[in-house]
C-alpha cells in the first residue's frame, strides 16, 4: 500500500459530532483581555496607522498574547481551528473592529491581500441587490459586476480559501440561519480512502483552476498550467485545498474535461461532508473571531434569512494570513497562479 493509501492519524482527524461535546475550541476573553484589546486599539488609533501595516509589536497583548500563541500552535499542530469569543463588538465602531480583528490576527501570521484592489480586510455581506456602494470599502465590489461568494448570500459548499490561515470576525448575525460549518480535511481523506480509494487517487491528482478575469494580470482569464491536488501528503499529515467554483469555471469556460471517476470524485467531497456527524456546525456570535488553518480544515455555510436593511444584515470581516514563504507575497495572486506555484514545491 502506498503512502497516499494510508489513513491519516493525529489530532487533525476529527468528527464534528465529537467536538459538539466539548468547548476546548473556544478561547474566552476575560475582562482583562478586553481591557488589553481596548488599550492596544487606542494606541494604534493614536498613531493613525493603515490597518495592513499593524504587526503584533504594534498591538501588544501581554496576557492574551500568550493564549493566542497557544491557539496558533493548535491551528498548526492540533485540530486546525479555534474561536476567540467575548469581544463586545457592539461597543465599538466598525473601523475599530477592523483594527481589533487585524491586531488579533497579527499573532497568527502576516496579513496578505485578497484581491488586486487590496481588500486586506474583506467584507462578508450580501450586496447582490445593491446598485451603488453604501461605503467606500464596497465601491470596487459593486462596480466589479461579478460578485464573489462572500458578497452574495445563501448557502456555500465546502471549500478552502487561497491562503494558509483565514479568519472571520463577526459583526452581526443574520435574521435566521447562516451557521458556519467546518470539516477535518484529514477525516474527509480517510473516509474517502476507506470507501472509494479510486476516487482518492483522482483527488491526489487534482483539478485545473480558472480564476476570474479581474484577478489575473492583464485581466486575461486562463486555466492553471497544471492540476492542483485536493490532497497533498506531508509526512504523517495530509493537507487539503479545494475551491469548487474555480474548478467549475475551468470546466464551464476553459474547456476542461475529466473522466467519470475524476468528475464524480469532486462531488464526493460534498457528499461525504454532508453526512450526519462529519461537519462541526456552530453560530458565530457578534465579536467572535474564527481562526482556521486553511490546509487542515474546509469550511462551508448554511443558507440564511437576512434583513432587508443593509446595516442590519449578516456581516463579517474576512482576513487572510500567510505562514509559509510561498504565501508571503504583499501583492495578490490569482488562485490559478498561486496554487500552481505551490503545487510545484
Explain the layout of strands and helices.
Elements: H1 16-19, E1 26-28, H2 31-47, H3 64-77, E2 81-85, H4 94-105, E3 110-112, E4 122-124, H5 139-144, E5 156-159, E6 165-172, E7 176-177, E8 180-184, H6 185-195, H7 197-205, E9 231-234, E10 237-240, H8 244-252, H9 260-273, E11 280-282, E12 289-293, E13 297-301, E14 304-305, E15 315-322, H10 335-344
Helix pairs in contact: 2-4, 6-7, 7-9
Brief characterization of the structure:
The protein is of the alpha+beta class and 345 residues long. Helix content is 31%, strand content 19%.
Q: Can you give a write-up of this model?
A:
The protein has helices at 16-19, 31-47, 64-77, 94-105, 139-144, 185-195, 197-205, 244-252, 260-273, 335-344; strands at residues 26-28, 81-85, 110-112, 122-124, 156-159, 165-172, 176-177, 180-184, 231-234, 237-240, 280-282, 289-293, 297-301, 304-305, 315-322. The protein is α+β, with helices and mostly antiparallel strands. The protein has one domain: Clavaminate synthase-like (Double-stranded beta-helix). The two termini are 24 Å apart.
Strand content: 15-25%
By DSSP (H or I, 4+ residues per run), the number of helices equals 10
> How many strands appear in the DSSP assignment?
15
Structural class: alpha+beta
Tell me which oligomeric state these chains represent.
single chain
Tally of structural domains: 1
Largest sheet: 7 strands, mixed
| CATH topology title | Double-stranded beta-helix
CATH superfamily: Clavaminate synthase-like
| Low-pLDDT residue spans | none
Q: Provide the CATH top-level class.
A: Alpha Beta
N-end to C-end Cα span: 24 Å
Amino acid at each position: 500500500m502506498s503512502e497516499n493509501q494510508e489513513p491519516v492519524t493525529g489530532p487533525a482527524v476529527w468528527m464534528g459530532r465529537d467536538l459538539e461535546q466539548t468547548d476546548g475550541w473556544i478561547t474566552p476573553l476575560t475582562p482583562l483581555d478586553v481591557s488589553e484589546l481596548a488599550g492596544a486599539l487606542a494606541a494604534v488609533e493614536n498613531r493613525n496607522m493603515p490597518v495592513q501595516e499593524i504587526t503584533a509589536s504594534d498591538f501588544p497583548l501581554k496576557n492574551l498574547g500568550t493564549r493566542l500563541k497557544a491557539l496558533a500552535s493548535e491551528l498548526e499542530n492540533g485540530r486546525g481551528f479555534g474561536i476567540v469569543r467575548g469581544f463586545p463588538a457592539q461597543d465599538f465602531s466598525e473601523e475599530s473592529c477592523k483594527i481589533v480583528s487585524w491586531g488579533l490576527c497579527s499573532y497568527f501570521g502576516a496579513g496578505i491581500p485578497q484581491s488586486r484592489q487590496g481588500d486586506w480586510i474583506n467584507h462578508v455581506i450580501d450586496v447582490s441587490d445593491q446598485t451603488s456602494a453604501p461605503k467606500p470599502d464596497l465601491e470596487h465590489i459593486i462596480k466589479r459586476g461579478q460578485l464573489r461568494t462572500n458578497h452574495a448570500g445563501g448557502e456555500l459548499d465546502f471549500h478552502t480559501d487561497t491562503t494558509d490561515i483565514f479568519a472571520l470576525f463577526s459583526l452581526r448575525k443574520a435574521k435566521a440561519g447562516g451557521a458556519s460549518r467546518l470539516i477535518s480535511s484529514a477525516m474527509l481523506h480517510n473516509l474517502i480512502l476507506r470507501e472509494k480509494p479510486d476516487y482518492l487517487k483522482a483527488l491526489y491528482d487534482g483539478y485545473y483552476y480558472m480564476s476570474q478575469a479581474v484577478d489575473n494580470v492583464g485581466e486575461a482569464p486562463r486555466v492553471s498550467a497544471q492540476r492542483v491536488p485536493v490532497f497533498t501528503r506531508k509526512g504523517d499529515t495530509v493537507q487539503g485545498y479545494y475551491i469548487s467554483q474555480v474548478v467549475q469555471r475551468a470546466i464551464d469556460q476553459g474547456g476542461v474535461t475529466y473522466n467519470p471517476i475524476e468528475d464524480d470524485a469532486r462531488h464526493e467531497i460534498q457528499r461525504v461532508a454532508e453526512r450526519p456527524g462529519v461537519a462541526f456546525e456552530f453560530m458565530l456570535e457578534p465579536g467572535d473571531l474564527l481562526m482556521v488553518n486553511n490546509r487542515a480544515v474546509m469550511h462551508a455555510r448554511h443558507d440564511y434569512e437576512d434583513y432587508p436593511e443593509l446595516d442590519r444584515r449578516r456581516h463579517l470581516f474576512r482576513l487572510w494570513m500567510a505562514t509559509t514563504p510561498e504565501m508571503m507575497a504583499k501583492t495578490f495572486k490569482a488562485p490559478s497562479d498561486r496554487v500552481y506555484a505551490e503545487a510545484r514545491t
